[in-house]
Amino acid sequence: MQIEKAKSRVDSKFPKRIASAERKYIAYFQSYTSTYGNPERLFPIFKKAILHPEIVALSIGTRPDCLPPEIIGMLVELNKIKPVWVELGLQTIHEDTAIKMNRCYSLSCFEKSYADLKKNGLSVIVHTILGLPGESKRDMLETISYLAALDPALDGIKLQLLHVLEGTPLANLYRENPFHIMSLEEYTDLVVECLDLLPETTVVHRMTGDGPKRLLIAPKWSEDKKRVLNLLRKKLKIKNS
Hints:
Blueprint: H1 2-11, E1 25-29, H2 39-50, E2 55-62, H3 69-79, E3 84-91, H4 95-100, H5 107-119, E4 123-130, H6 137-148, E5 156-161, E6 164-165, H7 169-176, H8 184-197, E7 203-206, E8 216-218, H9 225-240
Parallel strand pairs: 1-2, 2-3, 3-4, 4-5, 5-7
Antiparallel strand pairs: 6-8
Helix pairs in contact: 2-3, 6-8, 8-9
């Protein structure tokens, strides 16, 4: 069963002193757009996952333009069983960047979907990408400031480092017209500034990421995720001391 295989992978990352019977899990539908489809087909899939006794929440990654009323209604029904988190892609508030990156929906579309989800009692986690081509530090902090000011307040955020991966249009753009790639120091300093802008009630679900090593063109330093996280911990400790 898919859940059992995923549990085994997760369990291998934890110390053996933590008894497996004490562990609980989040069913994460991450790849692609998990609300793109017929609710009659999607509901049984999500319900089977959320009813698993060791699953305590359902996390569903999607796009703002794939949340019609019938899909939100389905999510509301699932939320009555156990908590449902909707992970909503935004990446940036800047429309010129969104057009260049072929995001294919406007900021107003995000705002409507966000309001609809919150109005229906669903928790929302927003994805952002730091380091998009052409964006300045000010641009990126403006995106975070916008999210920090959302009303109702944002439940969670994922800060994702931009990866240039082989076989993508972004890789072609990078080779043809190289854009700035942040150093490890630049990135970790920026993350600390982003965290300062966010309300204490917003849960930070991610502060970096690691792309597939066989496909990663840049930044190469992101391959060492532990190094990135350790530097972030050090900078946060110094700041708060």
